[in-house]
Specification:
The structure holds two protein chains of two kinds. Chain A is of the alpha/beta class. In chain A, about 55% of the residues lie in helices and about 5% in strands. Chain A has 32 helices and ten strands. The model of chain A is unreliable at about 115-150, about 280-285 and about 750-760 (pLDDT under 50). By secondary structure, chain B is of the alpha/beta class. Chain B contains 17 helices and eleven strands. The mean pLDDT of chain B is about 85. The chains are: A alpha/beta, B alpha/beta. The interface between A and B is medium-sized, with 34 and 32 residues.
Chain lengths: ~775, ~350
């Protein structure tokens, strides 16, 4: 009986290649892999042809699906290769890590102790909540890529590879391992050397982390079990760090004691499709691999070239094929990339590598060469290369027989709790949002819509202010597929919607898209996503040179600010954003008003009216002053379209910034003979558009217009008449009639009316009180 | 020599080059005075085995210089690109001094640069007297570099008219310069290469044809990475220049320089220093060199019209002038920056007021 320990780094393509070869040479009769034994039931799925990496093994607590751990695997993961080897050659495969049912049990016990419910913290990564103790966070290489700089001296227990690299004079553990192990061409003695290095590193160290101690004890127990069962050649695949601890199997009793009495929870395991993007750094809880696409390239090229050829051939092949792929990618995007470019890039990469004393170009050299040769020094194409080649866009697949994902289970649970069963035929639901169950139903439907699982369609949109929503529910089979796809966003509907909204926010290019998302996120009650969206809006607003977008985005935000506290939105963040937007809109407004044609002026007219309304809603004097000074500049602007200039005067008049005399003077100027007639007509239109009723009742406005008209000479009146006719024709019939009647009565009528309203009906609090009850019910305050 | 306003790199740093050559045991490409490794040390500074200190010529990313040197070691030309004031010509001069020991094979690119300036001209008196002969030929710096296996430098490549630029294509791909009038050619000797510099912002002026672009490896020289780095550069240059101009002002407080550099960096990168707020960027380049000139003009103002201390009012006009290059667009950018960033920053009230008054 022999045991063979293969210390690897998770997701190292070189490790994967060497391991595969070593296993083929060894022909073990059992393979033990560092992984959660909870997944034993779903392991056979690996052998199915439609299981395509990258995929992740998902272990989650059945009762608390937020408590979940992902074990991502790519084709270049040594574990993947070991598992595939075992399953295809028909030998037993076992996971030997401490089961997640115990790890989560410990975690849950810790969480419960300070009475903190696992509600997740709002600052969590844009993804499902931090897994409690993910396998990737163990001290075996992948932790060496923790983004923060390592403080000196490096603690070998936390970062063994970093410690070795430091001893070798490298600043970066990742790079050192890459060069010493992953890029090594002859695998002979590699695993023995790793074992020895780790043993030296661990010499004299005692583990302190209780979880680590238990994990290694469990691994040893699993090995003992295999020995007892009579296996002859036992292959053990584990993170290099654990290697030395698995050699001495003598003290079984001690391990038994360590493992006694651990808490346990009910866990489930399944496979979920993964992406290379999620394997990389940027997605917050990935496996911490910067360059999955590059790793896959190295792995597949080396596999294709085969072991028979000398190392220099293989490395040359990797470089050449990489550059050819870069060229292909750039060509596909319409950029110049000829074969001559490829030749030059390969030569530069090799020269660089030899200048730096490397045996073959690493990704760094390849990138620098690509940038200098292909990209004309620019980093835009480099970003393309990074996203499409270095990280890669590969999406994994899992077989149909894979067990249900937690997201589906969460939906089923919610459907049951909210008594909202999924039916294939359509059904209308009238939700009263003042009722807690209905409110939760509405949130669920909005969240699902956000995830593009459009089970319910909102019939007849009602604004945020109303409390009734009419939904049409219809469950179509393809929605199940959508739900599985949405599974990558999180394990509960709320988490997934949140993560999805954040991601959409990061990808949205323009303000209108973002404001629409805010609206959706508010309806779906995702406060964290809203806060994130606000930051994005602030960023976009700052660089947006499109004042239209700014002004369009402002009113909904002002609404949020004014009424948002009902929904517990972080109003401070919104207020800051809105401040900036008003200031920016005010600065940009005058230049946006120059040189408008009629259509553009009409559009801007609407925006100015809405923005003014929004600014008024904010009730912030500073902002109003800023906005009014912008309007004043518009009113003074020469060559500004009349519609806009007229409305600016009107808004200033309404706000009391201009007094009646000043407004009358401006009206006179705008309509004087020197003015171009269409321009003058537009001006009057701007002044009184959509406000026929207001004109009837607002004495200030009336007297300005009336006074100006009465002051016109006969000739000037004839000249102005067509302009006025045109404007007044936009009012409807009853309005025009009322205006005419008022004009016929003359100024005296006005005085009488004024005195009539103030004197004859003094305020009667007793009568007013009688109506309070009805008003309260209308507003939904007292039901 | 002492009378010279400015010495060539190979003259000024002769001692360093000599020490490097003496101690350099690594393989050298044909006709190189130093190995690529030693060239990198010459540019980036370091201490040699015998204790000689090599001063850094370029402060910044080591990788950039390594890519540049590796390019020269292949037979592709090197094109240095960057906004004005990023030490393109400086790097090009020192590279050729270190590689070939000679930085004088220089062609200055302008809109008026003719083909003769790049290939060869004629001594017309000889031409008329004796007819076409090698003696009547006036060789260009490029031709001399080809003959002697040295580095030819072309400054501001993109300012040279496109048809003249394309003269370089044959020279750079076939390494030969035909002289049809004499039925002869000049073939480049090993060690010949070309370093060209071009200005980022003028890329559209006479953009390189893709055929020519293909003959160059491009290296972008960036603006300084960190605030501290840039502040240090500005401070050193300002005190050098201040001494040269003999300004009777106090050297500026570090805080004031830091503030100006912060404004430059924020507007240039389009995001505030704390990384929280995005900003619009103006059309101008806002290079370190311009920051230096803002501080300098502020110092001159303070010395001659103020109390000798650099104050917000002294730098405001220079600052506004540096930022607002396009009267419409940049004005909006600057105003937004003032209102949303400067106004709210602690201790910047004086700068806000001074800039506000100028608008």
């Amino acid at each position: 009986m022999t045991t063979h320990i293969f210390g690897i780094r998770h997701h190292g393509p070189g490790s994967a290649r060497s391991l595969r070869r070593a296993l083929e040479d060894l022909r073990p009769d059992i393979v033990l892999v560092e992984g959660p034994p909870d997944a034993a039931d779903v392991l056979p799925l690996l052998a199915q042809p439609d299981m395509q990496p990258p995929v992740a093994l998902l272990i989650y607590a059945h009762e608390v699906p937020r408590l979940a751990v992902y074990y991502p695997f790519a084709v270049f993961s040594p574990e993947w290769q070991a598992m595939r080897y075992a399953l295809t050659s028909g030998i037993p495969l076992r996971f030997m890590d401490l089961p997640q049912r115990h790890q989560m049990g410990v975690e849950l016990a810790l969480l419960d102790a300070p009475a903190a419910p696992p509600e997740g913290d709002p600052a969590a990564a844009p993804a499902p909540p931090e897994p409690p103790q993910p396998a990737e966070a163990e001290p075996t290489g992948t932790t060496a890529v923790a983004p923060e700089p390592q403080p000196a001296p490096i603690n070998p227990q936390l970062d063994p590879i970093g410690a070795l690299a430091e001893a070798a004079g490298y600043s970066d553990g990742e790079r050192w391992w890459e060069q010493m192990v992953e890029q090594r061409s002859d695998a002979a003695g590699l695993f023995e050397a790793i074992q020895e290095a780790m043993a030296t590193l661990r010499d004299g160290l005692t583990l302190t982390d209780p979880i680590e101690i238990r994990r290694e004890a469990w691994m040893r127990q699993t090995i003992r079990q295999a020995v007892r069962e009579g296996f002859q050649r036992i292959a053990i695949v584990c993170g290099a760090w654990h290697g030395p601890a698995l050699v001495d199997l003598s003290n079984a009793a001690a391990d038994g004691r360590i493992l006694k009495g651990m808490p346990s929870v009910d866990v489930r395991a399944t496979w979920v499709p993964w992406t290379y993007g999620r394997l990389s750094y940027r997605s917050g809880y990935g496996a911490g691999i910067e360059s999955p696409g590059w790793y896959e390239h190295m792995f597949t090229v080396e596999a294709a070239v085969g072991p028979g050829r000398p190392a220099s051939d293989r490395s040359f092949e990797i470089t050449v094929r990489w550059m050819a792929r870069v060229a292909q990618l750039l060509r596909g995007e319409g950029l110049d990339a000829s074969s001559a470019h490829v030749i030059e890039a390969v030569r530069l990469a090799e020269t660089l590598a030899s200048m730096r004393g490397r045996s073959l170009p690493g990704l760094l050299e390849l990138n620098e060469a690509s940038q200098a040769v292909f990209c004309f020094g620019s980093d835009l194409p480099m970003r393309l290369i990074h996203d499409r080649l270095i990280v890669g866009e590969r999406l994994g697949e899992v077989p149909e027989a894979t067990p249900l994902a937690p997201l589906q289970q969460d939906l089923a649970r919610l459907q049951k709790r909210l008594r909202l069963p999924a039916k294939a035929s359509w059904e209308d639901k009238d939700l009263d949002l003042r009722n807690q169950t209905d409110l939760e139903r509405s949130r669920l439907l909005h969240r699902l819509n956000l995830l593009k699982v459009s089970w319910g369609k909102l019939q007849g949109s009602s604004g945020k202010g109303t409390f009734r929503e009419l939904w049409r529910l219809e469950w179509q089979p393809e929605l199940s597929v959508g739900l599985i796809e949405a599974g990558i966003w999180g394990n509960t509907i709320a988490d997934a919607a949140e993560a999805f909204a954040r991601d959409a926010a990061n990808r949205a290019a323009a303000l209108p898209e973002l404001t629409q998302l805010v609206d959706q996120a508010l309806l779906a009650d995702l406060p964290d996503a809203v806060a994130h969206l606000m930051r994005r809006i602030q960023d976009e607003a700052a660089v947006s040179s499109d004042i239209d977008h700014l002004m369009d985005a402002l009113p909904p935000l002002a609404n949020v600010l004014r009424y948002g506290n009902v929904r517990r939105t972080d109003t401070d963040a919104v207020a800051h954003v809105v401040d900036g937007m008003v200031t920016r809109a005010a600065i940009g407004l005058p230049s946006a008003c120059a040189g408008l044609n009629d259509d553009a002026a009409a559009a801007l007219f609407g925006r100015i009216v809405k923005t003014s309304g929004a600014v008024g809603l904010l009730q912030n004097e500073d902002l109003q002053a800023v906005w009014h000074s912008a309007l004043r500049r518009v009113a003074d602007l020469r060559g500004c379209h009349g519609l806009v200039a007229g409305r600016a005067v009107r808004l200033l008049l309404d706000a009391g910034v201009l007094n009646a005399g000043e407004a009358a003077q401006r009206l006179g100027l705008a309509l004087s003979t020197a003015a171009d007639p269409p321009q003058a007509a537009a001006w009057v239109e701007g002044l009184i558009k959509d406000s026929g009723t207001l004109l009837i009742h607002d004495d200030g406005l009336w007297s300005i217009l009336d006074g100006w008209l009465m002051g016109l000479g006969a000739e000037a009146f004839t000249y102005t008449l067509p302009l006025l006719r045109r404007t007044f024709s936009s009012f409807n019939q009853p309005e025009r009639r009322a205006l005419g009647e008022r004009a016929r009565k003359g100024p005296a009528a006005r005085v009488r009316r004024l005195s009539g309203t103030t004197d004859s009906a003094p305020f009667d609090p007793r009568r007013a009180e009688q109506s309070l009850d009805v008003v309260g019910r209308l507003l939904g305050i007292n039901t | 020599m002492d009378q010279l306003l400015r010495e060539h790199a190979e003259q000024q740093y002769a001692a360093e080059l000599e020490a490097l050559a003496r101690l350099d045991s690594r393989p050298r490409p044909p006709r190189w005075k130093l190995s690529p490794w030693a060239v990198a040390t010459y540019l980036l500074g370091g201490t040699l085995d015998d204790g000689t200190t090599i001063t850094p010529k370029y402060l910044g990313n080591r990788r950039i210089i390594e890519v540049a040197i590796a390019t020269l070691a292949t037979d592709r030309g090197l094109l240095l690109i960057g906004v004005p004031g990023t030490a393109k010509s400086w790097v090009s001069e020192h590279l050729s001094a270190a590689v070939a020991g000679d930085s004088t094979m220089l062609i200055q690119g302008t809109a008026g640069t003719s083909e003769e300036a790049i290939r060869y001209g004629w001594n017309y008196a000889r031409l008329l007297a004796d007819g076409p002969s090698p003696d009547a030929l006036v060789s260009s710096p490029l031709m001399r570099a080809m003959r002697e296996g040295k580095i030819a430098r072309i400054e501001e490549l993109t300012r040279i008219p496109a048809d003249v630029q394309d003269t370089l294509i044959t020279i750079m791909s076939e390494k030969t310069l035909p002289i049809p009038e004499l039925s002869m050619e000049v073939q480049a000797v090993k060690g010949f290469n070309v370093i060209a510099t071009a200005n980022d912002r003028d890329r559209g002026v006479n953009d390189l044809s893709s055929a020519l672009k293909r003959r160059f490896n491009t290296v972008v020289l960036p603006l300084p990475d960190t605030l501290d780095e840039e502040v240090a550069i500005v401070q050193r240059r300002v005190s050098d220049l201040g001494r040269a101009l003999e300004l009777p002002a106090e050297p500026p407080a570090l805080e004031e320089i830091r503030r100006i550099v912060t404004v430059f960096r924020e507007l240039r990168s389009g995001v505030t220093a704390d990384g929280k707020t995005k900003l619009k960027s103006p059309t101008g380049t806002l290079s370190t060199a311009e920051a230096i000139s803002v501080v300098n003009s502020g110092l001159a103002l303070a010395a001659h019209f103020g109390d000798g201390r650099l104050r917000a009012g002294d730098v405001a006009s220079g600052l506004v002038g540096a930022v607002i290059k396009d009267p419409v667009q940049d004005h909006v950018v600057w105003q937004e920056y003032l209102e949303t960033v400067v106004k709210e920053r602690d201790g910047w009230k004086d700068l806000y007021r001074a800039c506000r008054d100028l608008l």
